[in-house]
DNA sequence: AAAGCGGGGCT
DNA sequence: AGCCCAGCTTT
């Protein structure tokens, strides 16, 4: 028996804390189904738990397993992502499901090295899937973990690739070991699951960005930021550039209870979703663009919508037209028909829509009834 | 290495 | 009104 003090174990303290104070009843917990865990991890990328809840339930009800998702129509998948944002996630999700079925016999691979080869799965998501589905030892590094590591180790360099490299080293060094598990009287797999969940839970609660509750934190005596009263300064605030603003005209063509929508290009904002025909609105051009539609009757001055994205601010000006039968028919010709079509406003299931476009459709629906 | 990519919750 | 969120992909 040694008389020296047992060194503080971050991993053991975290696992113990998670088991008594962490979350245990989230919809994607208490399962080892890699499909469910993968779906939750992708939805949770840059998205808060409370936001994901509803989308997760509806997605699972529609596509309960990887085979059903792999068989799905792409637009059907996109429609379940309407409003959730970062739509490349949905496109990659579908491609990933197809790859799992085609290349892995419908079973998600078990190692981070293999998981990371799949679309939409990066290093952190691969590790989370490997831990939660298979009890495989791998370190995650999400926003929560970065904040915890920055505070515990006093890392004050701004966010960058170089800082991430340091963070990954710490994340791997801190990971709960087989010996830790033994001390905790847990299997290594159980300890890994509690540890990984514990990082997320601690970052989402006590070690929040603002007003961390250090006085009840299991790491309080071993945390650089706490000891030096620097939790407000670590991690350092990110410098954010001013978002450029864009004015956009939206052309809403209606006929016989249907609305004309066009599939957006595969790159850029809202890639692959359906939206109204649009054109940038240069002030000098506003009248010209309206004039170009003067054969149709612009019956609105619908209010302009301000829509904020991460890197830009959009001012969307809807122009609503009720088309005659011949005008409506005219739209179907030309090359428009390749990526556009008439959609029943009462049945937009299976159509992926950007949030503000969905909002406009709902508003227009209400106003014409 | 830096930029692009949504939308919402919270203060 | 600004910051951040169970990040990944493209340039």
Automatic annotation (TrEMBL):
Cofactor: binding comment: Binds 1 [4Fe-4S] cluster.
Coiled coil start-end: none
CC cofactor: [4Fe-4S] cluster
CDD domains: ENDO3c, NUDIX_DNA_Glycosylase_C-MutY
SUPFAM superfamilies noted in UniProt: DNA-glycosylase, Nudix
Transmembrane region(s): none
HhH-GPD domain mapped to chain residues: 43-194
Catalytic reaction list: Hydrolyzes free adenine bases from 7,8-dihydro-8-oxoguanine:adenine mismatched double-stranded DNA, leaving an apurinic site
InterPro entries reported for this sequence: A/G_AdeGlyc_MutY, DNA_glycosylase, HhH-GPD_domain, HhH_base_excis_C, HhH_motif, MIG/MutY, MutY_C, NUDIX_hydrolase-like_dom_sf
EC number: 3.2.2.31
GO molecular function terms listed in the Swiss-Prot or TrEMBL record: 4 iron, 4 sulfur cluster binding; 8-oxo-7,8-dihydroguanine DNA N-glycosylase activity; adenine/guanine mispair binding; metal ion binding; oxidized purine DNA binding; purine-specific mismatch base pair DNA N-glycosylase activity
UniProt keyword annotations, A-Z: 4Fe-4S, DNA damage, DNA repair, Glycosidase, Hydrolase, Iron, Iron-sulfur, Metal-binding
Record-level GO BP terms: base-excision repair; mismatch repair
Pfam family, one: HhH-GPD
Family: Belongs to the Nth/MutY family.
Task of the protein: Adenine glycosylase active on G-A mispairs. MutY also corrects error-prone DNA synthesis past GO lesions which are due to the oxidatively damaged form of guanine: 7,8-dihydro-8-oxoguanine (8-oxo-dGTP).
Protein name as annotated: Adenine DNA glycosylase
Organism: Ephemeroptericola cinctiostellae
Lineage of the organism: Bacteria, Pseudomonadati, Pseudomonadota, Betaproteobacteria, Burkholderiales
Gene that specifies this protein: mutY
